[in-house]
Each structure stands twice: as structure tokens, then as C-alpha cells.
Amino acid sequence: MKTSAPAGPAAATGGTESKARSRGRRRAPGEPRAIGYLYILPALALYSAFLLYPFGQSVWLSLLHWDGLTRATWAGFDNYRDLLTDPALRAPFAHALLLLVFYSALPVAIGLLLAALLSRDRVRGMTFFRTVLFLPQVLAMVVVGVAWRSILAPDGLLNDTLRTLGLGSLARPWLGDYDWALPAVGLVGTWVGTGLCMVLFLAGAQRIPRELYEAARLDGAGPVREFLTVTLPGLRPQIAVALTLTIVAGLRNFDLIYITTSGGPGNTTSVPAYEVYHRAFDTNQVGSAAAIGVALTVLIFALTTAVSRLVEGRRP
Amino acid sequence: MGPRRRLPLAVWITGLALSAAACVPGTDGSGAPVPGTGAGSAVPDPARAGRTTLTIWDQEIRGGQNDELEQLNEEFENRYPNVTIKRTARSFTDLKTTLKLAVTGANPPDVIQANQGYPDMVAFVRAGLLAPLDNYAGIYEWNTRYPATLLNLNRVSADGRRFGTGRLYGISQTGEYIGLYYNKELLAKAGLEPPTTWKEFTGGLGRLRRSGELPIQFGNLDKYPAIHTFGVLQDQLGAERARDAVLGRSTGFDAQDTTRAAATLADWVRRGYLPKSANGLGYEDAAKKFAAGEGAYLLTGTWQLAGLKKTMGDRLGFMPPPPADPGGPPVTTGGQGLAWSITSRARNPEVAAAYLDFITSRHAADVMTRNGVLPAVPGRAADRVPPQSADGQMIAGWRRLSAADGLVPYLDYTTPTSYDTLSESLQGVIAGRLSPERFTTTVQEDYDAFRRAQRSQQPQPTEPR
């Protein structure tokens, strides 16, 4: 289909510009406007059946008190009010936001650093390094969880290494330590996310015109200045993508917690996604679980929108 | 994306939310059969039921348990060729997460394994999803087959609010209890005999520690194992009081017992009787370490026996927690396997009842024993197990516990939230973050909150039909 005339849905949902154009122009002959809906119908049907409908149902459930079995009763905004007032529900959100430092900020920062180093000069065996650093991204989160659970065990690889290095006093039961469990789980997230960020940034850096670097160098910029004035602005879209992906991954983090700590010790590593599961399946608080889920969705939506506005620079 | 795009999306979502809102989820409990159902008083004959398919959902997927059940299912089908068993076996967690949808769905299984306690069994009963079995208990003489303590754990009050009393909603195949595993070699090396009293056991811990051994292996990363350890400690101070509290027959756990037991737990960690890194060590990892010779004792359930024996062979010994006096009645945390229940919409409840009777019969007990599984009521095969083997010790211990009525139900049965409360606070006690006194208060608050909620709902309006 070569025609440039936007089909129905594009016109309906597209920006102002395309709307104005479609109004001013006649449609391509012989092509009924409504057929556009038919083109998107398969995707829309799937999307509705598997995403929009369940989401609507979650919203509805979050307004009820329901144990999953007996007749539900109307709760209004009780479940949402509990999110703000119940410390047991506020804690998981606080933990999730703290985990974003490890899941999002650190991977992006390290990814930028690696990309800056690797893209400056030709590194021998570049493909190899890239593959190795990207590998965690390929593994299923369950596998990552099982592996790190054993690395962080009291007699695991990490503590053994520390003891071998004479740093035995630093060894601790990482996942069972009240102060260290959350950072320990967070660093696993850093390990997973860094490769993805780096690969994104490397790809982005290759698209930055060489002339900009040459110009910067002619102007006497050092590596730092070069990074700040050329690489960083050039990578803006990639940084936005990386932040969005890692924020979403960090906030919906369930598998890692489920496998490593189950929210413990105490509730120091409880996160919203785990709490959704726990309440829905273990303690028969389906309404509350749904409210957490909806709140989490809103939070993710808000943060990713903020990223696309602030970092990517898109205007509303 | 601009707001122009988001608006229709929001409209979509609202629209879908409203369409989903068209029905209030859940049953109103009207599926509950009238009290005292289970036709007549004659023993049902499945052979006369015509072609029947019995759908079963269970979680007996571990080695011996799976083998035992497979064999019994086959025998049942051979005895009644008109009956076909359709079995769905899942892990405990998988069963727990899918069972609710299955029993409320359009095509519920006939027989299910329900986990005792408020979140599962009591919730099912309140929703009218399980059939009471009292009538069958009379016909098949389950009331005399099982000790009352065990049978009570499968009872739920008629109003579906209380656990441990009321109508019978299931029977269990297997027994289980928290016992003391010991490594014979390590004890001998430290110059210790297997303890015959609780004092002897605790007294030997220091000696083991001094001889450079880890006295008790323990891993609590998975949060629940401490409930078992703590339960055993609490039981030694007052098993009867603890049992009354779990079953809601008192105003709460005895504060002194609870504080002292928690203090002992914290003390054992401080002294190095339990590993200091317990909160960071997985439950199965701890069992593996014990099997590999790290730790003289391991306090955990009978379900670990088969696995430990495979690695340790004759070095493994097992007993209920030793009693206060030599040869005295032992007490411990324990109970029975998940209850086998009949759903209230089972197509042929009589065949289901006959099946339940068959898999818990004396013959079934022997099949279980031969597969290394502890039957709730041991049969003749159990007598032939060498008494000095770990299996023999386990069976003998179970008989002593049953005879002395020494079982205290799992503490997490107490309230719908006691699992979370106990597991989280005990991690705090072990880490030295939560004082024993504070722990007792936390447990009592959980208890009080639940009783208050129960009372406020008590004069329950009769549900509309």
C-alpha cells in the first residue's frame, strides 16, 4: 500500500498535523476509510482481549473486597486508601523506588561509561565483550535468581571470594541480612540491566557523526568534554529508551524476589509485584492485590511518561 | 505520545472496566449442600455408579508419595473398571495458586487436596465449595480410624469461620511431624549418645559447639522453617496451651511460653548452636549441608527423611523431639498431609467417598509404608520396618505421638495472617532485631485482630439463596 493518506485509526489517534492533512485531502480513490480499522483489528482484538480487558477487570476488582471465592463486597476506594495508610503496603513501594537506583540509574550510568570507553577506540574482541555483557539479558529471570541465590549464599561464591582475599569480615549472609538484602537483590538487577544499556548506547554512539567528534577535538575538547558535549546529547533517545526499559523492569520485579528472598528478611525486600502475588494467592486479598497492581501500573506509566518528556524531550 | 492519543485509550479502558464490572465475582455460598448430606447410611458401591470419571487434583508429586498414589489409583480402577481416574498432579505452590479458579470454575474437579487452615480449606468451606464428610465418616468408620486430634484438623465450623472444630471436610493420607534428625557419627565423635530427654539434648549443644561442630543445622531464607523450630521450642513449654491457641480455644498464646521460646531461639543463634547466617541459608540447602555432615542435628519435618537417608544411609537417626522425662510422652509440631476433600459439585460424591476411603485404608497404609511414606494410621507393613532404621524410628515416634496426643498443629494455622506475622518476626528474632517480648506482642496483636474480626462478623446474616 503506497498511499500516504492516513487510514481511519491513524487519523483518529494521530497528532494534530496528520489530522489537519487528512481533513484537507481526499482519500485515495477506491479505498474506503473504514477499512483501516480492519487492518488493525487483529492486533487490537488481541490487545483488548489480553491486556485491556484484564486491566479493566483489575480496576474493577480493586474496588471490591474479595477473597477470591465468596461473593465480593463493594469497597470503594478502601483498598487505595490502605495503600497510603498501611505501613505494610507503603514499604513495598518505598523498596521498589529504592531498587530503581540499582535497576535503572546504575545500569544506565555504567552502560554510558562502558559505551564511552568502548566507542572511543577500536577494542580487540569487542564482539566478545559485548556478548558477555549482554548475556544476563538473555537469561530467564528465574535462572538469574537461582544462580545469584547460590552466589549470595552464606558459603556462596561471593563470601568465599571475600574470605580468600582476606576480607572475611565483610562476608555476610547477604540475602538474610536486614541491611544488605535489598542492595544485594538490587545489584543483581544492575548486573542484568547493564548489558542492555551498554548495547543500546553502543548502537546509538555509532550513529553520532564522526565529524562532531573531530570538531570537538579541533576545539580542544578532552575525553570528558567530548563525552559531555557530543556523546551524551547524541545518545539522548537511547538513554530515554534504556531508562524506560529498566524502570519498567525494576518496578515489575517479581521473579527475583520470589526466588531469592520471598520479601525477607522481615519485609525488607518486599516489592509491589511480589505483594500482588502474595495477596492474591496466599492471603485471599484479591481486591487489595488488584489495587496494588493498578497503583503500580499508574506509577510505571507516570515515570515512563516523565522520562519521555524530560529525557527524550518530547512535548505533549 | 500526546494526550490526544491517550484520551481514546482511557475511554477504552473505562469501557472495558465497566463491561468487566457487569458481574460481581464469587459465589454466594449457595452451592453448599444441606447439612448432613451424603445419601443414606449404606456403604456406597462405586461398581453400580455406571461409567464414571473421577477428576482428582493433588500435589503428591514427590518420589514415594507419587508412586504410592499412582499404585493406589491403578488398584482402584482395577477394582471398579467402570471408574476412570483423571489425575492432575502439581507442586504444592502450583496447586495452591490454581485450585481456587478450578473449584469455582464451570467444571470443578471431584476430589481435591485442600491445605488446612484459614486461607484455603476454611475459605473453600465458607464459599460452600466442599462437601461435608461426616456422614461418610460414620459409614466408613473414619471416626475410629483416625485419632481425634488429626480428624479435628480437617474440621471447619458450620458457619465457615472457625477451624479445628465442626464438620469434617476432608481426610488425610499421611502423617507428618517435626522431629530431630541426628548424625550418629558426629554425636559419637563428640562423645554424645542420642538424647533421651530434652535437657540432655540442649545440654549437649554446648559440647558439640566446643568440639567444633555446628550443633543444629538450620536455614531460614525461605522464611517458614523458623515457624517449625520455634513451634518445637514452644511445645516443650506447654503443648496443650499452644494447641488451644492455634485452634482458637483460648485468648492467645501463653505470653510466658512464647517469650521464653523466642528467647531460646535467639540465644541458640547467639551461642552458635544454630548457624548465625541462618536467615541467608535456603531450607533445602541446609538439609543438603546436614546430609553432607555439616551439623549434628536438624530439626525439621518427616518429609525430609527419604532424601536424607539416600545420602546418609545408616549414619542418619531420627526421633521426635526428646521428652522432658526419659520414656515420657513426646510433644512436637505436626499434623497430617493435605486433606483429601470432595467438592460440593462433584458429579458422583459416593464414588469420590469410596475413593477417599480406599486411599486411606489399611491396605493403602501398607502401600505408603512400602514407598517410604508415613501413613497417618500405620498398618501391618509398618510393623515389619526394622525398628532401628530411620524409617522405623519415624514410625515408632509417630505412634508415640499419636498415643500421647502430643501433636500441636502448625502455628501458621492460627489466623489468616499468622504465616506472615510469624515468618517475618521470627527472622527478626533470629537476626536479633526483634526482642522476644516484642515478638510475643506482635503475635498477640495478630491473634487479637483476627478474633475481633471474627466476632464482628459472628452473627452472620443468613445468606440469600
TrEMBL record, chain B:
Gene3D superfamilies: Periplasmic binding protein-like II. SUPFAM superfamilies: Periplasmic binding protein-like II. It comes from Streptomyces palmae. InterPro entries: Bact_solute-bd_prot1 (IPR050490), SBP (IPR006059). Keywords: Signal. PROSITE patterns: PROKAR_LIPOPROTEIN. Coiled coil: none annotated. The keyword Signal applies. Residues 446-465 are annotated as: Disordered. The lineage of its organism: Bacteria, Bacillati, Actinomycetota, Actinomycetes, Kitasatosporales. It comes from the Bacteria. Residues 455-465 have a biased composition (Polar residues). Residues 1-22 form the signal peptide. The keyword Signal applies. This is Extracellular solute-binding protein.
